[in-house]
Fold this sequence. Notes:
By secondary structure, the chain is an alpha/beta fold. The chain is built from ten helices and six strands, in the order ββαβαβαααααβαβαα. It has helices at residues 46-56, 70-81, 101-117, 119-126, 136-146, 151-162, 168-173, 191-195, 212-215, 217-228; strands at residues 4-9, 32-33, 62-68, 86-92, 178-183, 202-205. β5, α8 (191-195) and β6 form a beta-alpha-beta unit. The longest helix is centred in the middle third of the chain and has 17 residues, at 101-117.
Amino acid sequence: MPATQLVFLHGFGEDERVWTDFLPFHTFSFPVICPAYAEWTDCATLADYARKIVAHLPSEANFILVGHSMGGYIALEMASQFPERIQKVVMLHSTFVADTEEKKINRDRTADLLEKKGTAFFIGPFLPNLFATVSQELIATLAERYRILPAAGLIAATKAMRDRSDFTTFVQTSNIPFLFILGEQDALISPESITRFVKKSVVILPNVGHQGTYEAPKAVAEAINQFVHV
Length: 230
């Protein structure tokens, strides 16, 4: 029987280092892999990201995916393309719903801003929107860390997210178990936008925004561990 490994997929405006702030303080029963793709510029779609990530994963293993925000979008593509290898999916502050036309316009504005001004200009104002209750010191630390992310990689990710498919029906009908971990005060993905479609396997974190691994790390770890061992 193939071994099971946990794959943690980071979100937009961050890289795999986001997990180094979380994983060392919690224990998981499976080996952990944290792919790095923030600098990729050769993926036009989220399906491209999914295929490239799987190509870099151990070929003999099966996977439980934990996808934060954009990482959740990639997890959906991985589950859709490789259902025989994906055992479970944790959607951490992420959604299966495609962008609205208004959101697509905002993605275009983000890509344009990144192209004209660069990551350092963009990241400072972007990060505070992800948190509900966290110190300005942490936000400043993360802004300093991620200000050097290549703008070209963020632009590619922005366009891929803009054009992503809607996975509502897939989530509702798939045999793959899903868990949604959501922030009660998430300004980007509201719990209601998820619970209107799925009624079970949802954990809502009180007083948390879009970054539960910082704002409620113990609760996030407990929810993941409980889910993977069901």
